[in-house]
Amino acid sequence: MVDLTLLGSLLLAAFGVFLFFRNGFLKKIEESKGDTTAAATVVDERECRSREGGDDIIIVGAGVAGAALAYTLGKDGRRVRVIERDLTEPDRIVGELLQPGGYLKLIELELQDCVDEIDAQRVFGYALFKDGKATRLSYPLEKFHSDVSGRSFHNGRFIQRMREKAALLPNVTLEQGTVTSLLEEKGAITGVQYRTKSGEETKAYAPLTVVCDGCFSNLRRSLCTPKVDVPSCFVGLVLEKCELPFANHGHVILADPSPILFYPISSTEIRCLVDVPGEKVPSISNGEMAKYLKTVIAPQVPPELHSAFLSAIERGNMRTMPNRSMPAAPHPTPGALLMGDAFNMRHPLTGGGMTVALSDIVVLRNLLRPLRDLNDAPTLCKYLESFYTLRKPVASTINTLAGALYKVFSASPDQARNEMRQACFDYLSLGGVFSSGPVSLLSGLNPRPLSLVCHFFAVAIYGVGRLLLPFPSPKRMWIGARLISSASGIIFPIIKAEGVRQMFFPATVPAYYRAPPVK
């Protein structure tokens, strides 16, 4: 009897040990299965939180437009998710000059401190050079606070400051990832699909998705008609150990074949941008570019900058950037909006891109402020319809001026075009309203399309007057007629692309909502 009891105890103990190890083994198997599906579980949870979640707005891209928009909407209490392909400091040769009109928008968005502590330089106007002559064009800043002026800086430093400021807001999430597509349900955009930094494919949902992923956007085709023109390329160099002929001014040289720009980007560096017409530029790798700059461009550079220009060529740190132009031609899509260079580009000659982007952000912010529930899709659509109309005065003025000035400032074998170029230089050299008017348009301080057209044709008429006085001749009269025709051929196609009705008669364009004035 004792032996049977002992045997039973041993059998029960062995069975208990078996169960212990079996359960432990099964637990390990479940844990290993859990490891293989952990990423998917995290993604599912993230998607659930996002859909049920809490994001009010998704912003694709954290450049100037994306970072500024994230801070602005976050400050208004919106829950914002920003997805940016690369959160390291950008290194670009454009987007380095902010016009006074753009700086005023920066103040309105409470982002003016982002130009502090990055060695930004104040800019008070332009200096224009042609055939050895120079004229200074000052911004009309008399009516503004003493802090208002243009600013020039390293583009990447400015963007990083705005990203840092946006990331400090508790309701703004800045995430590194690559957006691969927009998510669509029943004709409306509901969010984005993207690849995280670790390579996971995931989705994010929000009532409104704002795409501002720059000039190389791969998402714009579904939201607009992209008619991208590339009239030229910029070749960028950095000059050191030299001073500009006119301190704290941008310099534009009306060179042959097209303009050259100089402006400070720090207390010790001057950016030089050489415009090369066409989409192809001489090769940098085989030395053709250095030869072109030395033989064609260097002789046209002001003497004060000549040696520094040659030294910059010798250092070899040359970079190129295509100059893109794209009119805004949106496909109004529920749940989505395009902004920045993804939506609208102009030749960067006048440095107006950031001013347009910041102005657009102010318009969008004012439109969204009264709308507390972005999930109310019909109301959101009606509000956003007004965005395209309200942005037009600033955007169309800067876009049209940029395209027209580039064509006027470029050399041409056509004598009438060259007369227009000379007339423009002389007109601006007159001073007074003849310089302050166009410069106020260029700087974004006076975004009035009608004023732009008036000044443009005033230049053309001034050019005709130069030809006919003191003694007109049949040849000069013919050149004058061609000059007017040439001027019309420059500006009217640009106005047509911008939209005549939207540009000059925005009040006649149907809109459901007008932004209230900023107090």
Automatic annotation (TrEMBL):
Q: Which GO terms describe its biological process?
A: response to hormone; sterol biosynthetic process; terpene biosynthetic process
Q: Identify the domain of life.
A: Eukaryota
Name the pathway.
Terpene metabolism; lanosterol biosynthesis; lanosterol from farnesyl diphosphate: step 2/3
Supply one GO CC term from the record.
membrane
Any matching Pfam family: SE
Q: What transmembrane ranges does the database entry give? A: 6-25
Q: Which parts form a coiled-coil structure per UniProt?
A: none
Gene Ontology terms, MF aspect? flavin adenine dinucleotide binding; squalene monooxygenase activity
Q: Which residues form the Squalene epoxidase domain?
A: 206-478
Which reaction(s) does the protein catalyse, per the Swiss-Prot or TrEMBL entry?
Answer: squalene + reduced [NADPH--hemoprotein reductase] + O2 = (S)-2,3-epoxysqualene + oxidized [NADPH--hemoprotein reductase] + H2O + H(+)
Q: Does the record bear Thylakoid in its keywords? A: no
Major enzyme class: oxidoreductase
Could you say which EC number(s) this protein's record lists? 1.14.14.17
Q: Where in the cell is it found?
A: Membrane
Write the record's keywords in alphabetical order, separated by commas: FAD, Flavoprotein, Membrane, Oxidoreductase, Transmembrane, Transmembrane helix
Question: What does this protein need as cofactor?
Answer: FAD
The UniProt entry's sequence similarity note says: Belongs to the squalene monooxygenase family.
Per its database record, what is this protein's job?
Catalyzes the stereospecific oxidation of squalene to (S)-2,3-epoxysqualene, and is considered to be a rate-limiting enzyme in steroid biosynthesis. Component of the triterpene saponins (e.g. ginsenosides or panaxosides) and phytosterols biosynthetic pathways. Catalyzes the first oxygenation step in sterol biosynthesis and is suggested to be one of the rate-limiting enzymes in this pathway.
Name of the protein in question: Squalene monooxygenase
